[in-house]
Design brief:
The protein is of the alpha/beta class. It has helices spanning 35-43, 58-61, 64-70, 145-156, 171-181, 186-200, 210-216, 225-235, 242-254; strands spanning 2-9, 13-20, 25-29, 47-52, 75-78, 88-90, 95-98, 103-109, 118-122, 125-127, 132-133, 136-137, 163-165, 208-209. The strands form three sheets. It has a six-stranded mixed β-sheet with strand order 1-2-3-4-5-6, covered by helices on one side. A hairpin with a 2-residue loop joins strand 9 and strand 10. Helix 5 packs antiparallel against helix 6 and helix 8 packs across helix 9. The radius of gyration is 18 Å and the shape is globular. The structure holds zinc ion and fe (iii) ion (FE).
């Protein structure tokens, strides 16, 4: 039985902790900070087996050094990024297996936010770092719109009941932008009501699930007439190619 628990870090990061509730072995994804992870490990007497890293940004990798000093475990990360402490370099389609959790992960290259960004996919769940957020997507710091669009397409081709474990609690502010893009999308209005409810109780809005994102995330809806018309109205243009719509949408969101 695997429990997946968000450990809040910094202002709005989540470090995802995967725990086998029977034997207490665990792995963590994107420890930007070591202390909150160490607290949880000690509090629940967990045995850390590995660290997974999606990309090089410090809010995802800054805790590695301190963690491996305490727990000398393998650290898996993207082969195409230089991250201090990562000692298992991963490429697209690699598979890694964690015996104590009986979990296998398949690696996807999902460049765009950073050049070498990867995702970890296990049946029913995806750890996608800063690539897909609920109702939004990561900023294009190192990659092109075309790369990011293609990366998101890889994610949308997964089974629609896949749970999406994003690395930031950006849902409500993303939804406000989504609502501006598609004011008549009822799924967005419902998601705002739910996110408000969860926020009032200080609960995470994550994980999301792919089928919900397909209905409300404008960055996954660049084929929809409502999104195309809205982007063109905003920019006074007549774009139709989904990649161009995606790029215009990302630029719009950057200054929203
Ligand atoms: Zn990042
Ligand atoms: Fe981040």
């Amino acid at each position: 039985m695997i429990n997946i628990i968000p450990i809040p870090a910094f202002k709005d990061n989540y470090i995802w902790l995967l725990v086998n509730s029977i034997n207490h072995h665990c792995i963590i994804v994107d420890p930007g900070d070591a202390l909150p992870v160490i607290d949880v490990i000690k509090q629940h007497n967990l045995i850390l087996d590995a660290i997974l890293i999606t990309h090089h940004h410090n809010d995802h990798s800054g805790g590695i050094k301190q963690l491996i000093e305490l727990y000398p475990v393998p650290v898996y990360g993207p082969a195409q990024e230089h991250i201090t402490g990562v000692d298992h370099l991963l490429h697209e389609h690699d598979e890694i297996y964690f015996e104590n959790l009986a979990m296998k992960f398949l690696i996807f290259d999902i460049p765009g936010h950073t050049k070498g960004h990867i995702a970890f996919y296990s049946t029913g769940m995806l750890f996608c770092g800063d690539t897909l957020f609920s109702a939004g997507c990561g900023r294009l710091f190192e990659g092109t719109a075309e790369q990011m669009f293609h990366s998101l397409s890889k994610i949308t081709s997964l089974p629609t009941d896949t749970l999406i474990y994003c690395a930031h609690e950006y849902t409500l502010s993303n939804l406000r932008f989504a609502q501006c893009v598609e004011p008549n999308n009822i799924h967005i209005n419902e998601a705002i009501a739910l996110a408000n409810q969860l926020g009032e109780q200080n609960l995470p809005t994550l994980p999301s699930v792919l089928y919900k994102e397909l209905l409300m995330n404008p960055f996954l809806r660049c084929h929809a007439d409502s999104v195309i018309n809205s982007v063109n109205h905003h920019n006074g243009e007549q774009l139709s190619d989904p990649v161009n719509i995606f790029q215009a949408l990302r630029t719009w969101k950057d200054t929203f």
